[in-house]
């Protein structure tokens, strides 16, 4: 392969992403995406590669969503196929809603419940994914409490707020309905869904694990949310309870804690608001 050009691409707030234009021995042009997180670890790149492969296998089965194919992961570098963007089709939101509903029908093939075969990363934060049969225990200890402890250690939250968070964790069964563990993208906000070469939905930058479908839906409402057609199609093709939005802030408390940890005090008010509301 001969490298012809390197073109920087937008990559969110933590990654450096470039399009590599190459020419193979037959003279054909090949385009790939190179992703690196400055200061990132081999483990982070391996976790993303593993998540993309897991999602890719399931989306291939449903043929509704697309995930970039992983070409190579070495060190903290990730090399993927480049999907040239096109305008979204009129069917984009239907495809996305249907595809996510089908994805959320997938449980861990080994029946291990909540978690994943490795820890993943949401932004730069480690997501602990030790297998757990009890979803309430998984979210309490490996999501809310885990991030709460890190925020407390950095003095981003008070001991009083942390105690309230622990109190809330103990009462998750009173506030969240019983749900199975299903395959989640894990970081599904609008910036992590792009248009592929045919205007189809493409999922990128996952933080994969098996967890509550309502938690995934809740995150889609952060930072602008998705088109209402997406929600209509998803709800029509899934077993999601009609009142899931009533619990969205509780699920998103995890992401507000993560943003507080990553970006600082601007997110403290949201954390305090949600903990106070659900502790009442």
- Helical content, roughly? 40-55%
Order of helices and strands: EEEHEEHEEHHHEEEEHHHH
Fraction of residues in β-strands: 15-25%
Count, helices: 9
Query: Would you identify the regions where 5 or more consecutive residues have pLDDT less than 50?
Result: none
Order of neighbouring strands in the sheet with most strands: 1-2-3-5-4
Annotated CATH architecture: Alpha-Beta Complex
What's the alpha carbon Rg, rounded to whole Å? 19 Å
Q: Provide the residue-averaged pLDDT.
A: 93
CATH structural fold name: Aminoglycoside 3'-phosphotransferase, Chain: A, domain 2
Q: How many separate domains make up the residues?
A: 1
Assigned CATH class: Alpha Beta
Structural class: alpha+beta
Q: What is the count of β-strands?
A: 11
- The quaternary structure here is single chain
N-C termini distance: 62 Å
Largest sheet, described in full?
A: 5 strands, antiparallel
The shape, in one word, is: globular
Plain-language structure description:
There is one protein chain. This protein has 9 helices and 11 strands. It is of the alpha+beta class and 280 residues long. It has one domain (84-279): Aminoglycoside phosphotransferase (APH), C-terminal lobe (Aminoglycoside 3'-phosphotransferase, Chain: A, domain 2, Alpha-Beta Complex). A 5-stranded antiparallel sheet has the order 1-2-3-5-4, covered by helices on one side. A two-stranded antiparallel ribbon has the order 6-7. A two-stranded antiparallel sheet has the order 8-11. Helix 3 (135-153) runs antiparallel to helix 4. The longest helix is centred in the first third of the chain and has 21 residues, at 42-62. The protein starts with a strand and ends with a helix. The model has no long low-confidence stretch (mean pLDDT 93).
């Amino acid at each position: 392969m001969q490298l012809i050009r390197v073109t920087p691409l937008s990559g969110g707030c933590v990654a450096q992403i470039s399009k590599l234009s190459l020419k193979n021995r037959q003279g054909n042009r090949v385009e790939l995406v190179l992703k690196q997180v400055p200061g990132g670890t081999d483990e982070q790149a391996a976790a993303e590669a593993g998540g993309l492969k897991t999602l890719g296998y399931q989306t291939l089965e449903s043929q509704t969503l697309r995930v970039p194919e992983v070409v190579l992961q070495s060190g903290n570098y990730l090399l993927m196929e480049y999907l040239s963007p096109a305008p979204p089709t009129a069917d984009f939101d239907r495809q996305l809603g249907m595809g996510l509903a089908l994805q959320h029908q997938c449980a861990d093939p080994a029946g291990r419940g909540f978690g994943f075969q490795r820890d993943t990363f949401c932004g730069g934060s480690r997501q602990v994914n030790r297998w757990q049969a009890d979803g309430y225990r998984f979210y309490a200890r490996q999501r809310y409490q885990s991030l709460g402890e890190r925020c407390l250690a950095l003095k981003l939250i008070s001991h009083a707020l942390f105690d309230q968070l622990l109190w809330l964790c103990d009462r998750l069964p009173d506030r969240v309905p019983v749900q199975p563990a299903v395959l989640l993208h894990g970081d599904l906000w609008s910036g992590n869904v792009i248009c592929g070469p045919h205007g189809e939905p493409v999922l990128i930058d996952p933080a994969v694990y098996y967890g509550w479908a309502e938690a995934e839906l809740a995150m889609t409402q952060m930072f602008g949310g998705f088109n209402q057609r997406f929600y209509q199609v998803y709800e029509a093709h899934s077993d999601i309870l009609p009142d899931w939005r009533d619990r969205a802030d509780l699920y998103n408390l995890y992401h507000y804690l993560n943003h507080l940890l990553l970006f600082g005090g601007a997110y403290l008010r949201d954390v305090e608001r949600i903990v106070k509301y659900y502790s009442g």
